[in-house]
Amino acid sequence: MTTETTTHDFAPEASTTPHLRTLAPRMQNPALLVPGAVKHLSALGQIVHGQGVPATTLELVHLRTSQINGCAWCIDYGMRQARKAGESEDRLGSVSAWRESPYLSEAECAAIELAESVTRLADSSDPVPDAIWNRAAEHYDEQALAALVLYIGVTNVYNRLNVTTRQVAGVVG
């Protein structure tokens, strides 16, 4: 028996799938191409502010929804916006493991849990179970819940536009 190995023994098999980060976008974001679309999507995303959900919670919801959907553009943008709003790296880094995070409040966790359910509608025969809705309703009144659901929805729209057209994180326009 020999202990000698060659470096090729440890080399991973070549992938036939291109890495998305090396690709250019398929096209410009559709919301920028259809006249008025980005204006209205942006307005819908902004109108939820001041409706009973703290802006920091909305940022965390945006981040978690974008993580689930694999939208690198929205994750990058959301992280930048959250940092500008004063979010700490500890809190931002804990969003993907929110259930175990000591940095997030019960209300924030309830909002993130709702965002996960709304984002993963097809993954369950009971996509938004009463237990999840009721946890969110313990922390947010009907107006705030409406704002949360709208914000989760608009984030999902942006995620789907960006992922479908392979928008590149850090590139605007």
Fraction of helical residues? 40-55%
- Helix and strand composition category: mainly alpha
Give the N-terminus to C-terminus distance in angstroms.
59 Å
**Count of beta strands:** 0
Strand content: under 5%
Low-pLDDT windows of residues: 1-12
Radius of gyration: 19 Å
The largest sheet is: none
Return the average pLDDT rounded to an integer: 90
C-alpha geometry: globular
Helices, by number, come to 8
Helix-strand topology string: HHHHHHHH
Keywords:
173 residues; mainly alpha; 8 helices; disordered N terminus
Provide a descriptive summary of the structure in words:
This protein has 173 residues and is mainly α. 55% of the residues lie in helices and 0% in strands. The chain has helices at residues 30-33, 37-47, 55-69, 72-84, 89-93, 106-119, 130-139, 142-164. Helix 3 runs antiparallel to helix 4 and helix 6 packs antiparallel against helix 7 (130-139). It is globular and about 40 Å long. The N and C termini lie far apart (59 Å). Residues 1-12 have low confidence and may be disordered.
Concise description?
The protein is an all-alpha fold and 173 residues long. It is built from 8 helices and no strands.
Architecture blueprint of SSEs:
Blueprint: H1 30-33, H2 37-47, H3 55-69, H4 72-84, H5 89-93, H6 106-119, H7 130-139, H8 142-164
Helix pairs in contact: 2-8, 3-4, 3-6, 3-8, 6-7, 6-8
